Amino acid sequence: MAISVTPIVVDLEVAGTNSSATITVTNPNVESLPVEVLVELIAIDETGTTVSTTDALDDFIILPPQTTIDPGGTQTFRIQYIGDPDIGQGQLYRFAVNQVPVDTPQEGAAQIQIVYSITGLLTLSPLEADTAVRVAGTALVQDEEGANRASVTLHNDGNQHAYLSRGALTVRQLDAAGETLWRESLGAQRIEREIGFGIIPPGQARTFILPYDLPGSEGTISAEFDEGRQR
Q1: 202 has pLDDT over 90
Q2: For the stretch 155-181, what's the b/e string if a residue is b when 16 or more beta carbons lie within 10 angstroms of its beta carbon?
Q3: 28/16 Cα distance (integer angstroms)
Q4: What is the residue-averaged pLDDT of the chain?
Q5: Could you check whether 4-125 and 133-226 share the same CATH topology?
Q6: What average pLDDT does the segment 111-127 reach?
Q7: Residue 50's beta-bridge partner residues?
Q8: Fold assignment, 133-226
Q9: Which CATH architecture does the domain made up of 4-125 adopt?
Q10: How far is Cα 18 from Cα 166, in angstroms, rounded to an integer?
């Protein structure tokens, strides 16, 4: 059984009480589990794909950096930001909880060792930070299987990471006369469950292709997004 990590998304600020957070790692296995926590700075593109990574351990203190979790036990790790407090706009990191390989030499026997790695996202915000999300574009597209889908592009004009899953999204398919052919209204919980967290970095756009069948390939897409309370 794989290890479990909660939470998998952490929001930090550069200073103050919100500059640190804890994650909890659970070992459901019947053997002890040596683990370590690493952090790296990442950049994502409009589709949410990671396009670059940079080691960021100098920006954080992780306590403990490495430990062994007893069978069926849990371990809490504290992540504290200690880097530059004057970052201007939010930064996005990825933390990884990695199982540390253990040497188990056995003479004359081939060995296969499975190790686990669970990753999560960490956002870092300036003290004076806000989000400003707007609909930047819509389209009617086909997915890889040829199904008709609504595509919505959101742009964050703020200096703090925004989340699709902390707002409400209404999407419509309209015919040539402007009449509604299809409509879907998504609240925060449903967005998180069916689409994901949907992190939108500051000064960037994210395009989301919604996983819902449209009644046809004609017409246009309109969208409204209420970003709600992002922090």
Answers
A1: yes
A2: bbebbbbbbbbbbbbebbbbeeeeeee
A3: 34
A4: 92
A5: yes
A6: 83
A7: 44
A8: Immunoglobulin-like (2.60.40)
A9: Sandwich (2.60)
A10: 19
How far apart are the C-alpha atoms of 174 and 177, rounded to whole Å?
A: 8
Contacts with 126 (C-beta within 8 Å, 6 or more apart), sequence order = 13, 14, 86, 87, 88, 89, 90, 159, 160
Tell me the domain boundaries of the chain: 4-125, 133-226
Structure tokens at 126: 């300036």
pLDDT at res. 103:
63
Q: Given pLDDT bands bounded at 50, 70 and 90, which one contains residue 230?
A: confident
pLDDT in tens, 22-76: 999 999 988 899 999 999 999 999 999 999 999 998 999 999 999 999 999 999 9
Residue 194 DSSP SS3? helix
How far from 225 is each of 40, 138, 152, 187, 210, CA to CA, in Å?
A: 31, 12, 10, 10, 14
Contact between 48 and 206 under an 8 Å Cβ cutoff? The reply is yes
